[in-house]
């Protein structure tokens, strides 16, 4: 049952990005002393250090890094050693100006930021491969180094490059994918608007054009861009593995970055890692945090993963950077832990005095170690030390939510029926309903084996391949319960409307077809009648034609007045539900009661402010409880609170804003499937 993502550490990993090059040497000694006080056992080093490691091309200076690694190792602090490929130095761009990124409008990006190198540049690729090899050859056997951290947040701040080298790579990629121009023209539907190609040299990138670009081309461009990033990652990995055996990771940004297909990236890394930052405008940001954590665990295929970055308090790059309230950092960390993270780490250890992120919070803030933030950092370190036995345990879920980055890319292209119907918004609404009902979920790709789940939810499956449609139909026929949201099963992998019309891949599973979309004007609302209750809906309606499905909800007014809005269909041994409109998380509650009944799932009966997640070990369950409310709350449970040592014999009383981790006997909850 248990799995160890990083066996070099005896317990859970705790620490953050450490950038000592920003500070005088005497500060390093204070840093390691404070790290020991806080319980830090792992730091990420060298991620932005290219200019110091290679001050001139081919001239490497490792003396400062040698000293740092020795200092950390002597004080019991392990190192996640970074390759600095995200920030090439000034000399690189002076020597190789053609390696700069070109935007879609032809603007060439300048030096002075990070992440501004073209991943198609042969000079960039050679330089990062050389750097990774030099680091691995020197530190591959160093006792401090327990992991390798390649690059930083691929695709952020820029992924696309429209320069001539990228376009040449694009043409080669297309030739490998389609082999012939006839196949390319067919896939892209170039007969429309007379876009047919008869020479590979005529194929351009989807740069700025007078009106919208061919959507199939833009979808392939997104795939190509993602693959370019992965090619560079593989180059560094191969260079490291020639000299070192430690696991390799890179920090994803699940549900916060859209340039990378993490189902593919998850197969490339030895350990899945994620960076997550709260969006201040989101008053329920802890739910978005849980979504990202569940998504990251799912990319890791259920294995323990690493939270490689989050913030102790405010960030610096949003319009309004709201500080975390006392205790909020601990609640955030415990949510990540509860949803499968075996590492809780931050950006960064010590707040920077200069540079673009000097107002970003840190484990040691500008106020110093006497601050509230540092006291909470020390407290969190003590908590994680007390929770060492959780390491390697797993989260079990009975429900899967379908998530496909290619569908996200496709749905977010231009000229869709309504700008108001967005992939991320629907994903959040359905996830929030499940979260509020205390239903723990995995995320899955539509073509994954889904047979172990009682319920599969598809909030945003605009792009659905024929194979995915067959997979979901077989899932329902085999006894599963499927819930599909509107505007799903519309196009195939080339953004072509499916033969047979809207929703064709799911017709058998859902017992319906969609004749026409009926989007609303901005700000308009309508009502849906369901089981004697009137629900408020907005943005979207559909003209649904029944092919065997039963009507459960009807549009009471609006453009679809009198038409089916919510349906249920029996196919084989299972049921397929369809919601042909946009309902809020709160309004979805009325729909979910019937869906849960079909799936044999009981929603939560405890206080709505409580977040309760279970991790399963070899002999015990570990129930992580987070009270996101201000009022005290109770939970029925028997076990031992690992944070206090207290025995709980039936009722856990948890103060507002507090957390608990209860070791219990193993239950049958989670992982027991049809």
Keywords:
disordered C terminus, alpha/beta, Immunoglobulin-like, single chain, 674 residues, globular
Stretches where pLDDT is under 50 for at least 5 consecutive residues are 670-674
The number of domains: 3
Do you know the CATH architecture of the largest domain? Alpha-Beta Barrel
Helix/strand structural class? alpha/beta
Beta-strand portion reads 15-25%
CATH fold-level assignment of the largest domain: TIM Barrel
Largest sheet, in brief, is: 10 strands, mixed
Count of helix runs: 17
Coarse shape? globular
Give the rounded overall mean pLDDT: 96
Going by CATH, the homologous superfamily of the largest domain would be Glycosidases
Classified by CATH, the class of the largest domain is Alpha Beta
Measured between the Cα atoms of the first and last residue, the distance is: 20 Å
Strand order of the largest sheet: 12-11-13-14-21-20-19-16-17-22
Number of DSSP strand runs = 27
Helix content: 25-40%
CA-atom Rg in angstroms: 26 Å
